[in-house]
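Table S2 (text version). Query chain:
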Amino acid sequence: MRPRTFASTAWRTFAGRRNLGLLITVLVVLLLVSLVSPQFLSIDNLLVIALQVSFIGIAALGMACLIISGNVDLSIGSQYALCAVTAAMLAKTIPSPLAWIAGIALGAMLGLIDAFMVWRIRISPIIVTLGTLTIFRGIALRVTNGFAVRGVPQPFSTLGRGRWLNVPVPVWMLAVLAMLAHVALHSTKQGRHLFAFGGNPQAAEAAGINGKRMVLTIFAANGALVGLSAVLAASRFGTAAPTFGVGFELDVIAAVILGGVAFTGGEGTIVGVLLAVILLGTINSGLISVGVDPHYAQVVKGAALVIAVTLDQFAHEQQERYRKKLAMQERSPAAGT
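Corresponding structure-token output:
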């Protein structure tokens, strides 16, 4: 028990330090960019940045829980496109609130399709969702004939363009969902089961955790959040195209891993994910604000992902060394007697 307790304590310490490091990095980036472009720190500009990151942030909440459970969904970019165009097309024939709900429900259904194949076929979710990535994108292209959905009724745009207390609705949704996700992960029995299942699925199932139900639920929840993000984006722009979400999955996964969620599962925090989303969004907006080629943002995101994975690997190696050291110390007195 001692090695396990020490390892978990060490990880919490590391995660706390990482979150603090992310927060400091965000503040440093804001300061540096403001020195070149003073208007960058204006309230209006900060709200624009918050709005831009809210779409990735909402999807990142679901992806964080999915990766903590030991799974991943590479098809979310295509889900994003299909949910967006479906909601926009339906808005032409049914009331806008029903179209919003339909887009979110479609995301949950697509997530369930991925979950069923992952659980039933019993192969890597990377392989399964890589296939559905192409399938879902192809369906989005087929139903739209490759063209953007235009002529969407004005009421459809009220969700993505709405404001409350001068803060965009998508930002409020991200804040509320993040708090709910944090509580669900760290203060409920289901959250503890999720961490346990991601850390060791076989041991978790042996302890009575229903693995099938967990996989189906977490994939469906992830899909619903992707659907919500897609509906908000389509509502904000007043249109949707089958090319929506190209590279979306990489942005989301980069934020999740940079935020401290271990790709191997069983570890991570919502606070870290939110800080990583804000950091990447701030860097992207900052580069544009100071006149740097925005393509460099892709380089930064790729570098951040590699660095985050490297830090995780070092942390796990350190934990493993401590486990072995403590195990040897406990065996030595027994061996001496």
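Notes on Table S2: The chain has one domain: 48-312. Residues 48-312 form a domain with the ABC transporter involved in vitamin B12 uptake, BtuC fold (CATH 1.10.3470.10).
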